[in-house]
Amino acid sequence: MMLIDENAEMNDELLAIAQAFLGRHESEGGIDDQVLFCRAVKHLQNMDVPMHLAERLVSRAYGVLKSYNDRRRLDIDASSDRVAVVTDPANGLTWAVPVGLIVKHIINSPNSRRLRVVEP
Fold it and tell me: Which domain of life is it from (predicted)?
């Protein structure tokens, strides 16, 4: 069993564990992203990671996994609390996207997938 504190080094190790778990199990035939997310959270919880931290770490790991081959990046330094700045270093393009549009067209979209732990 692993005791968890909130230090960054431990969180980096747990994030790597979550990424490895998702990577190993992503290719299983017929497994839904929601099921995979829940299994990864439970995997971390089995190592005594609190639910809130496990969900946050698996969310980050899931994002890394799904965007691994995407060359576009969020420019954190150029972004603000109301505008996300996305860059594509390969072609030099930059987009400034208001957070309100992200919420309206992605987060609040009926097709939006919300990953969270679902108890059977």
Answer: Bacteria
Give the model confidence (pLDDT) of 5-22 as tens digits.
457 778 889 999 999 999
How far from 17 is each of 8, 68, 76, 93, 97, CA to CA, in Å? 14, 16, 25, 34, 32
Q: For residues 55 and 83, state if they share a domain.
A: no
Q: How many domains does the chain have?
A: 2
Query: pLDDT at position 106, please?
Result: 83
Same domain? 5 vs 49: yes
Does residue 117 sit within a domain? no
Cα dihedral angle (62, 75, 107, 51), rounded to 10 degrees?
A: 40
